[in-house]
Amino acid sequence: MAISEFKAHALKVIDDVANDHESIMITKRGKPLAQVVPFVSTENKPKAGKLAATLLFEHDIITPLGDSAWESTR
């Protein structure tokens, strides 16, 4: 999209980008000048390692865990 067209319709273009979730390249004399991209919230994305403390890692998976572990499953 040419910069002159963007200037004339900036609010509509920004609304379209937000609704369609597609970016738009702004050009000046046919050369890329800027890109308008939709906003992506990072608040709801899970963080790496968030559940790492909830896992039990056993080095030896062949040997049984013992009677106390079996009692807790009853």
Summarize the structure in words.
The protein has 3 helices and 2 strands. It has a domain at 1-39: YefM-like fold, CATH 3.40.1620. It has a two-stranded antiparallel sheet with strand order 1-2. It is rod-shaped and about 75 Å long. The mean pLDDT is 81. The protein has helices spanning 3-8, 10-20, 67-71, and strands at 24-28, 31-36. It is an alpha+beta fold and 74 residues long.
Core attributes:
74 residues, alpha+beta, YefM-like fold, 3 helices, 30% helix, 15% strand
Mean pLDDT: 81
Structural class by secondary-structure content: alpha+beta
Task: Profile the largest sheet.
Answer: 2 strands, antiparallel
Widest sheet: strand ordering: 1-2
Morphology call: rod-shaped
What's the CATH class of the domain at 1-39, please? Alpha Beta
Strand fraction: 5-15%
Q: Using the CA coordinates, give the radius of gyration.
A: 27 Å
Give the count of helical stretches. Answer: 3
List the topology elements.
Blueprint: H1 3-8, H2 10-20, E1 24-28, E2 31-36, H3 67-71
Antiparallel strand pairs: 1-2
Please outline what is shown here.
This protein has 74 residues and is of the alpha+beta class.
